[in-house]
Amino acid sequence: MNINQYAVYQLKESAELAAYRSRSYQYLTEHHFQVIVQNYQQAYFTKLFTSDTPEMIRKRLEEHRPKNFRGRPFGVGDVIVINQQGEITAYFVDKDSLVVVAGFIRSSSSGILVTLDTKNLFIDGCAGTWMATEECVVESQHFFLMQHEVYKEKAPNVIVDASGKLVSTEIRKGLDEDARKKILDYLHPPLMEKPMNQKPSLHQMEHYQKFYENGEYVRAVESTTEQNYNMIDGCANNLPKPRIINGRESVLDKLRIRQMAREKQKSSQEQSADMERNRK
Description:
Elements: E1 5-11, H1 25-30, E2 40-47, H2 54-63, E3 79-84, E4 87-93, E5 98-100, E6 121-122, E7 129-138, E8 141-148, E9 157-161, E10 166-171, H3 177-187, H4 207-213, H5 220-225, E11 244-245, E12 248-249, H6 251-279
Antiparallel strand pairs: 1-2, 1-3, 3-4, 4-5, 6-7, 7-8, 8-9, 9-10, 11-12
């Protein structure tokens, strides 16, 4: 089960970004300002209801400020980031519309959905809500130590990745070497050992398998005439092999051997028929 969530991002509180606060998307575009997560900080994080749409979220935040909403009042210039079934979409809050911002969060960059400011995070498989306390980077990916917001130090911590997906539980000593090993196990899960291919036992072999087991398809004839499979040696019923003359098998020898095989097979069939009549 995936838990759907959304977050609100606001421009960071820095002097160089002050001129871009509460501006329209057109203004930012005209002034070549990049609407990317590196320029923003998370102000709110909560669960996404099944019926929620970006417009409904905007209206709800404009009408009522949640208690755990941090930062400036919600409004134009903010970005709503929705994580729905693992698909992340960012919406810039413009004056009269919501503008989809492609690349606001890039999984291959330092742009992440979860940050050290994250609070009220729902984690699939973990009860309650969680807040970020530590961060580490392993193989260029961000991971966060999350603490339960109610039980605090009394409950074991957990680790999530940048999208909020659970990585490991029962973390009691922070992001130490043991925790990093668990992250590496998450990144590189151990491969399941495949059983070695075993040749089927002789009594399980299908007729066609005998041909390939002996290395050449032409031994099909021999496998139909030999009484025992372990006597298949390239010579039907132990008949002689054709001579090699000038690098090629003798055609006359092959014809004689074929005739001998037919006669031997016929004789065997007649003996079987006699034995059957005697039983009756």
